[in-house]
Amino acid sequence: MSAREHRGFSLVEILVSFTVLAVVGGGLAAAVASQWRSHDGLADDQRIRQAMGGTADLLLAEIRSVSPAAGDIRAALDTALEVRATLGTAVVCSVTVARDRIMVPPRRPVAGAPLTWWRDMPAPGDSIDIFNARGGLPDSISRHELVALGGGRCPMASPFARSAADATSSLELTVSPPLPPSIGTGAPVRFLRWTRYSLYRSTADNRWYFGIKELLSGAWAVVQPVTGPLAPAAPLGSGGMSLRVIDSAGSTVTTGAYGGARAIELSVRARGLRGPRALGRRVQAAESLHVVLAPRNE
User: Can you give the pLDDT at residue 161?
Assistant: First the structure.
């Protein structure tokens, strides 16, 4: 075998190979980095839409059940709304002779479908709406305050307690004022609690969130984050959340005059936590949602 057949790579060939590998590797790294940035941007866009959608869905669900004429709006600021929010539902299975106490079926009956539901246990100070079918007169809603609650008994003769265990595990609610004579067995019941929805700044990460807190037994609970982060609070309704209560003339309702409210205008804005680079600069994703909804009228 000749010396020519044993010839290895030259220094120039090795340098050219390394250069080609570096160019190819750099291109692959740039492509992977671009894909990661694109993935982060899409994830950020999805988070923004979820934050806005969750905020709007919750507020709109509450606004639909609010009755301004019944005093269900206590405060409506630019970034906060205090309303009587629905806590749960039930049905009257018995009324005492004095009409200051009602029985409702247990939340988890042994037999039959549940007729009582709540997201939190009712507490003294909560409000109770009871449907009042007044016969020849128009139906109405009778509002009462929950004074006390304890163990009760639904009559076995009623269709709301299908077992002895369900009858003895019913709930007794003491209300004020007493029920009108036209309310009887089978009347639907709705539990309500003062609830504040607001845009607030978290001390944990210094970002802005949509949060909720409840007035429980006369004291406000600690605010809990629901969705976010949202855009920071800003003047002129350009922040992460802004609210406006509107009367029949289209004017903004001021403090204390919410009984004449005909619509609530809601704007929600969210910004990305990061954004892809465009033309050498980082672009922060942003979305907004604007809706106008009429509350319940009674």
Answer: 79
